[in-house]
Amino acid sequence: NCWSVMHRKFSSAPCEAYFPRNATMEWHPHTPSCDICHTPRRGLKRKGREPNVQLSKKLKTVLDRARQARQRKKRAQARTSSKEVMKQIANCSKIHLSTKLLAVDFPAHFVKSISCQICEHILADPVETNCKHVFCRICILRCLKVMGSYCPSCRYPCFPTDLESPVKSFLSILNSLMVKCPAQECNEEVSLEKYNHHVASHKDSKETFVHINKGGRPRQHLLSLTRRAQKHRLRELKLQVKAFADKEEGGDVKSVCLTLFLLALRAR
What we know:
The chain is mainly α and about 270 residues long. It has eight helices and four strands; from the N terminus they run αααββααββααα. A two-stranded antiparallel ribbon has the order 1-2. Helix 2 crosses helix 4 and helix 7 crosses helix 8. It is elongated.
């Protein structure tokens, strides 16, 4: 290294003081205080010097942690964006109750366990996947149709035929939750199981018409039900059609029914 430095320095005029032509050069052991290779403008690294192993390990650890933090940030951003997309696909803000209507201030972990992992509303007609994640039936079916056949939470393969009802103990806890009536003049607190019956008393209020399925077994076809169950189902359907007619068609129920009949004919 010192020889290379001297050649670059004195390429035009060889230095006789450092390297005499007619005499033997006496080489001394190299020291850190060398005046040749430690000059401020032309310093060179000595190859014989061993690197600091501990310092390189610490630097590698710091770089690995920074890379892992960047990867975690990217994954979190991807999850956030996909969650917003799934909320737009579900589009259930008008039919599912928000967790803000809970009458009791429950811990965050409990609220998360009773809310859908797609729309983050209170579970309505809950279903469970093979990977033990719980969603609203409408939300998971819409996401499976648009996003693909996998669980939105863990990306485990999931198909509509794999969806099952949760255990009865979970459904009983869910139906016993007390919620606040969203009507402006009503401050009553009712259980989730009796919410539909309470909402039916607010016929003129549009804010309270939020359809909640109590969960349990999958909904059966109307013709396979008993006469009493058919009457109850038709009453619910009549309330929904009337509320939609009051909101969109100026109260004309007949035009809404004709539109539904036309849609049914087109869908065969």
